[in-house]
Amino acid sequence: MVKTPDSCDVLIVGAGAAGSLMAARFAAAGKSVLVLEAGPAWDEDALISSHHWSRRLRWGGPFVAVQGDNPLGFGFNAGWGTGGAALHHYGTWPRLHREDFLMRSLYGRGADWPLAYEDLLPHYNKIQDEVGISGDVAREDWRSDHIPYPMPPLPRSRQADALERGFKALGLPIAPAPMAINSVPYRGRPACLNDGWCDAGCPILALANPLAVYQPIAIENKARFHADSPVTRLVTDRTDRVSGVFYRTKGGALHFQPARLVILAASVVHNPALLLNSVSSAHPDGIGNRFDQVGRGVMSHYGVVTFGMFEEETDPHLGVTGAQWICHAGYRKDSHPQPAFGSFQWLAAPSIKPNDVGGIAASRFELYGAALDDFVRRASLHIGSMVGMAEQLPDRANRVTLTTEQTDWGTARPVLTNRFSESEKALWRRMRDQGLEILAAAGATEHWHGPPMNAHLMGGTAMGTDPERSVTDKVGRVHDMRNLFIAGAGLFPTAGAANPTFTLHALADRSAAHILDHWGHYI
Questions:
Q1: What confidence score (pLDDT) does residue 237 get?
Q2: In 10 A of CB 76, how many CB atoms?
Q3: DSSP 43-101
Q4: Alpha helices (H) along 258-367
Q5: Is residue 266 helix, strand or coil?
Q6: Less CB within 10 Å around the terminal CB: N or C of the chain?
Q7: In order of start, what are the domains of the chain with their CATH numbers?
Q8: Which residues are CB-neighbours of 181 under 8 A, at least 6 positions away?
Q9: Rg (CA), the chain
Q10: pLDDT of 145
Q11: Angle between the 501-517 and 17-28 helix axes, to the nearest 10 degrees?
């Protein structure tokens, strides 16, 4: 182990969406900030618009095992390197609904958040202005707080026009999807080219990933980002305080970095894994795990993609990977035929390319040879698609645990276990059937759907008021620990059906403001 360096005010584990925002906030306030990122350093010049490239932006560290009746896809949902998962995210930024924060109170299921929608509202609005969102809030009839988006909606695609017919025919309200993508130049960043390669990162920074917005602010204010530096263990100097972390550099050398305050902003899997790996006499079951809550309640969105073939050309390769339309008509949690329960949303008219895992060819996996060739030729010009995302409720059995196997980092390997309940499967079927109805009503000559899939990871280090049922308090501070915080979607007590990235930004902004206002209390 090398000589211990000087302490920093704030040490952040992970350079993704939440970590980059918090680095910007603390550095701008004059704190010395060090961000340790397990993966490589990326910048916009390294981003290339290709499916092959996009895979490099996903998890490339030690293997994470998945198991259970319905295993979740970890690699697709995780990031690798500076920018994290938000470097390859699609920029779809809806807000959670008020009812998402009151699941237990309203429906007797899941858990209540320790804060209300109104507590996040000023942070939603602040982030919206900084990042820039394109959309039309007046058409989001599920919203009561109609703060206009800074930019008009993205240009309509021919695919969006075709799918709009189906929603209108069934009386389902839709709105332009709220996208953290520039429809016009915004704050020195150009407008989107609408070439449909968001999945591989955005080299022109029209999409608001961490490289585009918060990392430049952090670096300008002297925050330091160290890539290829996986953190392996938290160190405590007394029962309720973290004194620093151990991390490895690219050659494998082990380093100790002291810090006055530590924030875990890694993935939904690796934040709990780090807590569980940090075993000591004071914390025999891992830090923050006195009541066996660390790693429990991991959630995802139970997804389906529905497809249709249209007579007219739809130019499906153009647009954005996220969506052109959003529909929350299925969001009312108790409005579905039993046993289905929960919310779902539609994201319609995403850009889709001919090949790769999520491409046109893979949508009809039973085809091969000449039949597949004919299908891809037709679909490349005439296909339309929609992505449905259904809510998963927190379940203690869906969790992150550690195995006895060691990773190359010298840590116990994490494993992610998941199953979907019968209620969630019924909700998925309801969503699937509605998707096919929409395509038929839109005039698709053929329509079909893909297999169940999942998108996004949330929970595992949920916030709450009761230490026996949660891992952190309402600002992300780990129960029983004075100076250890968690940031990111792992804080979510429930998932809702909306993409989580906007909400995790708002949570991070709220936590950073609170810590700065009460700095002396935590250090």
A1: 87
A2: 18
A3: -GGG--SSHHHHGGGS--SS--EEESSS---HHHH---STTGGGGS---B-PPPPGGGG
A4: 270-277
A5: coil
A6: N
A7: 8-48+57-522 (3.50.50.60)
A8: 91, 134, 154, 192, 198, 202, 206, 207, 208, 320, 322
A9: 22
A10: 83
A11: 30
